[in-house]
Design goal:
- By secondary structure, the protein is mostly helical.
- It has one domain.
- It has 9 helices and no strands.
């Protein structure tokens, strides 16, 4: 019964997020940013949206708004990828630099032991999970980038996964949104 309520709560949260996304995607505020800001507006909106506190929407769904405002599709995707990747890499670095402090606090916790065991047995699996999460999950990337940093994976490996994953996600979602609305 406990798992039923967890699943119910998760579904309710997702429904609220999708409802808010529909409400905000047509808002005058978002369209004003698109019309006045140009590519800087795209960068600023995607950057702030990456923290998941300003507007609870998936930023690439607004690609049609920027294209209608006169911006080109591919540069919009590239600028959004840069903005989101800066935030994700920042969270990775937060996990990476807090490693020493957190290990002292968490060595005895089961979650830490499981993560370390997973890393030791299947070194590439957490990186694969990170990449797939970034590409396919419209949820905060911090859920995977902070633990990957905490586990001590190299910056070059994680940074490239973050950038490529965000580019593919933005291209898929932005392209689909543009296709649906055209």
């Amino acid at each position: 019964m406990k798992y039923f309520w967890r699943a119910f709560f998760a579904c309710a949260v997702l429904l609220v997020i999708f409802f808010l996304q529909r409400q905000f995607s047509g808002s005058d505020f978002v369209q004003d940013i698109a019309m006045r800001g140009g590519y800087f507006g795209v960068f600023a909106f995607a950057f702030l949206n990456s923290f998941n506190v300003i507007v609870p929407i998936v930023a690439p769904t607004l690609v049609p708004t920027w294209v209608v405002a006169g911006l080109d599709f591919l540069p919009v995707i590239i600028v959004m990828t840069a903005a989101v990747s800066v935030v994700d890499i920042g969270f990775y670095l937060l996990g990476r630099f807090s490693h020493g402090y957190l290990v002292q606090k968490m060595e005895s916790h089961n979650a830490y032991k499981r993560l370390k065991r997973l890393q030791e047995k299947h070194f590439l699996l957490p990186l694969l999970i990170c990449g797939l999460w970034i590409i396919f999950a419209p949820l905060p990337n911090e859920f995977v980038t902070i633990p990957i940093g905490f586990l001590g994976y190299r910056f070059l490996s994680v940074g490239s996964i973050i950038i490529v994953g965000n580019f593919v996600f933005n291209l898929l979602v932005g392209g689909q949104a543009l296709h649906i609305l055209s």
